[in-house]
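Q: Got a minute? One more chain.
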Amino acid sequence: MGEGGCRPLGFLIGLPFALIALVFSVVGAVIWVIGSVISCLCPCCCCFAGLANLAVDLIKLPIKVIRWFTEQIPC
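A: Always. Here it is, folded:
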């Protein structure tokens, strides 16, 4: 089977946490858009680049949470 194919229990246990992470992902997307606009308007603000990188990590959070939970449950 493919990766994580026999681990539905980990997926089901991680689903509520992934939904919470999805909310953080939406917040990260908003922060990323605002940070991108501000960094385009004022390129001297290098701190917004770090903020945009943090926002991208927040956007990827639901996938990381589901992968972590499925890896914790053995086949």
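A: DSSP finds three helices and no strands in the chain.
Q: Perfect, thanks.
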